[in-house]
Amino acid sequence: MAKADFAFFHRLRVRWSEVDMQAIVFNGNYLNYFDVAFTEYWRAIGLPNVIAQAAEGKELFARKSTVEYMAPARFDDELDVGVRCASLGRSSLQFVLEIYLGENHLISGELVYVYADTEKRKAVAVTDEWREIISSYETHAPVDIRP
């Protein structure tokens, strides 16, 4: 992907507590960066936050996360984390994330969530309203992978 493929970026600065003995960001922290950026994406496009979802008895459950490392980030770097919804299934949402330092692509990742009934812990359909909000926000419309 290219940086231009993302309609949303969240900027964050690497803190001292996030680097390891090699003076680079400890690998597990990139998932935290993804989570923060995903939360800000969700807020920016106006979808209900986790508290509102829980009140309705539905939530997004994490199904898959991947991280691919191209180059490290270091203490005090200002990173731009791009978030893009790549596909929407009946109950699943796939997000592609990339981390940049300026124009340098450092990290790629994927987050897959399943929208589910909290009590039954069973998948439910992503609402048409959510589909419309996400699709209208994205630069490239998410692929519809419903069966």
Automatic annotation (TrEMBL):
Please verify whether the record's keywords include Iron.
Answer: no
Q: Which Gene3D superfamilies match?
A: Hotdog Thioesterase
The protein's matches in SUPFAM superfamilies, at most eight in alphabetical order, are given as: Thioesterase/thiol ester dehydrase-isomerase
Keyword Hydrolase carried by entry: yes
Record key words, sorted: Hydrolase
Identify the residues that the record assigns to the Thioesterase domain, covering every copy: 24-106
Q: From which residue to which does any coiled coil extend?
A: none
Report any Pfam family annotated for this entry: 4HBT
The record's InterPro entries line, in alphabetical order, gives: 4-hydroxybenzoyl-CoA_TE, HotDog_dom_sf, Thioestr_dom, YbgC/YbaW
Family the UniProt entry places it in: Belongs to the 4-hydroxybenzoyl-CoA thioesterase family.
Instruction: Tell me the protein's name.
Output: Acyl-CoA thioesterase
